C-alpha cells in the first residue's frame, strides 16, 4: 500500500469534521471519495497532503509518517489539484512549471521545460501556454491545475472535483487520460467527485463518507444502490446502459428530496 490512513480525525476549532477514518490506497488504481456536500471530502484530501494537520490518527506515505515529512519531501510524493484554482498574473507555462519546483535545485533545466511542454501538449493546452491565468475560463484553469500536478511527477495524485468545471468532452478526455496515466505509471489517484456516473465508470475503488466517517468502501463494481441511497439521502438505483453503470434517482426521489 502506498498510502495508509489510520483512525484519522480532524476538527476545525471544536467542530468535529472527520472521525476515526481508516483506509489504505494501493498503486495502479483510482480511488474516489464520495459523500454529500460538506461531509469532509476536501478536508480529508487536505489532511492527506498535510495542508491540514489531523487532530488524531496517523498517515503514512510509503511507510513513512507524513508528520515527519517536510513540504519538499511531500511535494515529491504527492500532488494536489484543489477544487478552486487561483487565476493570477502568471502565464500558463510558468504556472505549470511551478509543478517542477520540488525537483529543481537552482534553476529550471532544459529537461524541466521540456516536461512542461510535453504535458501541455498531452493535455491540448499548448495554444494557451503564453496566456495569463486570469485570461482563462474556469474549465481551462482546471486543466492547467491538472497539468501542473502531472509535471510534478508524483506517485500519488489528489484531485478535488477535477472535472467540476469541464464540459462533457473534456470530462471524458481528462478522466481517460488520468486512467491511462495511473495504469502506465502505476500511480495512486485519490479524487473526490459528485458525478456518480463518472465515478462508477473511471474509478476502481470507492470510499463513502457519512456522519464524519467512512460509511462504506470497496471495489467500485461492487458499490450498491442502497449504500448510495443512505449516503446521499435520496433513493437511487444503479442500472446498466450499454454495459456501463448509471446511477439514477428512482421515481419518488424528488418527494424524498
Ligand atoms: N476553514 C474552515 N473553517 C471552519 N469550517 C470549515 C472550514 N472549511 C470547511 N469547513 C467545514 O468543514 C466541513 C467539511 O468541508 P469540506 O469542504 O471538507 O466538505 P466537502 O465534503 O468537500 O464538501 P463539498 O462536496 O461541498 O465540496 C463543512 O461543514 C465546512 O463548512
UniProtKB/TrEMBL annotation:
SMART domains: AAA. Coiled coil: none annotated. CDD domains: ABC_Iron-Siderophores_B12_Hemin (cd03214). Pfam families: ABC_tran (PF00005). One of its GO terms (molecular function) is ATP binding. Residues 3-236 form the ABC transporter domain. The keyword Membrane does not apply. Gene3D superfamilies: P-loop containing nucleotide triphosphate hydrolases (3.40.50.300). InterPro entries: AAA+_ATPase, ABC_transporter-like_ATP-bd, Metal_Ion_Import_ABC, P-loop_NTPase. Keywords: ATP-binding, Nucleotide-binding, Transport. Belongs to the ABC transporter superfamily. This is ABC transporter ATP-binding protein. It comes from Desulfobacter hydrogenophilus.
